[in-house]
Write a structure and sequence with these properties.
This protein is mainly α. Helices cover about 40% and strands about 0% of the residues. Helix 1 packs across helix 3 and helix 2 packs antiparallel against helix 3. The two termini are about 25 Å apart.
């Protein structure tokens, strides 16, 4: 257990610089729906679900939303190489 005087470091990733949210979402989507496409990094919007809606329609948006809101999703995000030591 941490002593009360020890400082905590909290990392908050708001735009994909600490963890690769998109890669994990796309990987899981592709594993679950291998015959469907995934969005690319060159998309025209910020949010992954919006990109799936724009490129593949409402069903794809619902699927990716189920994936990214599933229990354990955030704990499974891969770290961006070199983001901290």
């Amino acid at each position: 257990m941490r002593a009360p005087s020890e400082k905590r470091i909290v990392l908050v990733d708001m735009d994909g610089v600490i963890c690769d949210f998109d890669r994990r979402g796309n990987d899981l989507y592709q594993n679950l729906y291998p015959n469907e496409g995934v969005v690319t990094e060159s998309r025209s919007c910020f949010y992954l679900a919006e990109a799936y809606l724009n490129e593949f329609g409402e069903e794809a948006e619902e699927r990716i939303n189920q994936i990214i809101t599933s229990e354990g999703f955030f704990r499974s995000l891969p770290q961006i190489p070199g983001m901290y030591h």
